[in-house]
Amino acid sequence: MTAGLTIDQLAEKHSATLDTALDVIRTRAYWSPHPEHPKAYGPDQDGGLDAAAGQAAFDALRDRRFELDQPGTDGWTGSEVSPYGPRLGIEYPHADLSVLLPAMRSAMRPWRDAGPRHRALVCLEILKRISARTHEMAHAVMHTSGQAFMMAFQAGGPHAQDRGLEAVAYAYAAQAEAERTAEWVKPQGKRDPLKLAKEFTAVPRGIALVIGCNTFPTWNGYPGLFASLATGNPVLVKPHPRAVLPLALTVRVAREVLREAGFSPDLVALAAERDGEGIAKSLAVHPDVRIIDYTGSTAFGDWLETNARQAQVFTEKAGVNTVILDSTDDYKGMLSNLAFSLSLYSGQMCTTPQNLLIPRGGIGTDAGHKTYDEVVADLAEAVGKLLGDDARANALLGAIVNDQVKERIEAAGRLGEVALASRAVANPDFPDATVRTPVIVKLDGAKPDAEAAYFSECFGPVSFAVAVDSTAEAVELLRRTVREKGAMTVGAYTTSAEAERLIEEACLEECAQLSLNLTGGVYVNQTAAFSDYHGSGGNPAANAALCDAAFVASRFRTVEVRRQA
């Protein structure tokens, strides 16, 4: 295969970016090479698309076949309907896996032999080209996940690309440590020393399977995809049936770059499924699949961890995220911050707070002592004011992603006293969209029947204000929740050094990521690549963290060759 994109060209374009990424995963400072503002993208960005071109590119994808030219295509499939209403009408190639998987395996050797730096630079070129098409990707994410456009643009575009680049940096660092040569000399006294020449090579495990999710197809998909590709593994992308397009676009760009760089495009392929086919289970136990990355329900994540024994499995499942309200010196800021956290993307994030643990005797604040009832009422009022304008509400809430979330909202009122009822919001641009504001339900933590509600995950814009006897009891309930149900995030508000110590110790012992006293423009349900860890891998919500050394290290093995010197 003739290379059209040489290693020298790739190095000239991307070495500085890779070197900076390697530095910031060490310092954990803020950095991003991918602009968050839509106006930063356009034709001057190496063939990029501006807003109009991105919209046109998305529109051109609809109601036609999405060609990929990958081996084993035996038909076409696709049934995506936007949460905003329109049917996308896109058909994707359906793969005969008995043809596709062998083609992917045969692509491995040249990719392995290219070495870690060459692979990393190719991955950065893929990310660069995806970045140039961020406007197109934003529409694809919006109309498959239900995110509002600006969130789809940022979370589905630059933030997802940052997570992909972060994974590449960790993967390169781990392999650079493993790949080396050594001259080994062992003295033997009066006899000649023993001498060996040793060579150590990072060897990929095999085909990696990415099982995509509906709500954040790129943000959750890119870490595993790029971690596996950068460590030498072919990657088969199995999107969620309702969110195929963002990952199909990603696969198309990856195949294009791999071909131009002189490698087989079959290192990255798409596995779109027919309605009801359920190929994730059969793929997960296929002997050629050696790595699995999954985001989704706890039930299927547990099944993968139990049954996919031939593979290294990385899961991000679900948990019950908790915030403890003990005291605050910025009551208004606390309420504002929590209101935004509960509202963003209609709570359809694995990091959104669910349980708000509040001492029944109330909390101390800079605005005076507030009773439990006052805190809950004031929070409900803050959410109501934040979402009182329909235009702003639509920009924050997006659309409800599926009927199951809608059913949870409607059922929440039967679980306890409703402090804030959910209301429907009309979207004038998409009249068929289901847009709902959050519901807040008051529960007494001392009552056994309340535990059934707050001790189970309720994905979507449903939160429980749980009255507890004390902050100490809240900490114990937090411990139990994280240990038994898991948590992607924990938040707390306190002015007490002792309470802070107890909460921090609980999170350290139960391995949960903690945010303290957030009152400004950073929210508990947001994490930044290169600096924040998404999940910990240490509680039932996820067995991996995005991103740390453990997330990449087991995607390859180091093989040693010794030669007599």
TrEMBL record:
Claim: Disulfide bond is one of the keywords in the record: no
GO BP: L-proline catabolic process to L-glutamate
Name of the protein this chain belongs to: Aldehyde dehydrogenase, PaaZ
Annotated keywords: NAD, Oxidoreductase
Gene Ontology MF, one: L-glutamate gamma-semialdehyde dehydrogenase activity
SUPFAM superfamilies named in the record: ALDH-like (SSF53720)
Gene Ontology cellular component terms for the protein in this record: cytoplasmic side of plasma membrane
InterPro entries linked to this entry: Ald_DH/histidinol_DH, Ald_DH_C, Ald_DH_N, Aldehyde_DH_dom, PaaN_2, Proline_metab_enzyme
NCBIfam families: PaaN_2
PANTHER family found in the cross-reference section: DELTA-1-PYRROLINE-5-CARBOXYLATE DEHYDROGENASE 1, ISOFORM A-RELATED, DELTA-1-PYRROLINE-5-CARBOXYLATE DEHYDROGENASE 2, ISOFORM A-RELATED
